[in-house]
Design a protein that fits this description.
Elements: H1 10-31, H2 38-41, E1 43-50, H3 57-68, E2 73-82, E3 85-97, H4 103-116, E4 125-130, H5 132-160, H6 166-190, H7 197-227, H8 233-269, H9 272-317
Antiparallel strand pairs: 1-3, 1-4, 2-3
Amino acid sequence: MFNFDYVGKRKYFFILSTVLLLIGLVALIVRGGLNLDIQFRGGTQIEIEMENGDFDVIKAENIAKEAIGKSGIHVQKSYTFNPTNSDEAISFLVIKSSGKLTDDERNKVLDALKAEFNVKENGEMRVRDVDPSIGAELLTKGLLAVALSLILLILYIGIRFNIMSGLLAGFTAVVAVLHDVLMMVAVYAVFNIPVNESFIAAVLTILGYSVNDTIVIYDRIRENSRISRKDSIRTIVNNSITQSMSRTINTSVTTLISVITVYAFAAYNGIGSMKEFTFPLIIGLICGTYSSIFIASPLWELLKEKQAKRKASQAAKA
């Protein structure tokens, strides 16, 4: 069995995470916050049915920007199945504007795109205006969902892992999950990726996945604590992580391969909605695996040792 002092080397992992998060913080400050999509800051979304999916979204985006003289325009592809023929896919060109477009601006964009691309004659066109207040409400509800999930995680782990000073184990697990979420935010800030409802969905998905990896290691720590009572906490944690390593890596790699395959398919075919969901999943899966191994358990050991020293000091004074 390969032995590695995860606990002894924890400061390097903590420093690495801190540096990466600081880079994200700097990016947030420089960019003035996250690049919120229209779902959260309001705007206009136009979906135009195309003859086929063979069109350049970058070219379409530049044409749309030039047509109305605005820079806050984002274009992507979208597909849906034909309800009358399940073997046929209907292609849409999706335009997202960070500000509401007037009827005149919409017509200019549509005319410019018709001049360059095969817009389907008498095809479907959907226009949706999103009010900023509705976007703010969506964002607030998403954040509340994340907060509620974290509270429930602390309570669940606190009850299940009572032998590990339950609430302490719950706290360190939530710190690891927050680490993953903040890493995802940092990546979005650095690369200025639009944040939409897919990001919130991905965050909630990663919450469950990340804490599951952490619980697997915690479960091993709990069992080893009962079996190896003479071993130090550091030894138990190191052994538990090592024993869980193959399972954690195998599960994460298998899941990553699947998600990366979906992302590659979406990127190749220009399916923006699928890319928007799978990209944060990839980041979250990598960070979740890292935090489960190098953050949660080593941090728990650190706090547990401090707790034991504090109790010993109080007992000595008494």
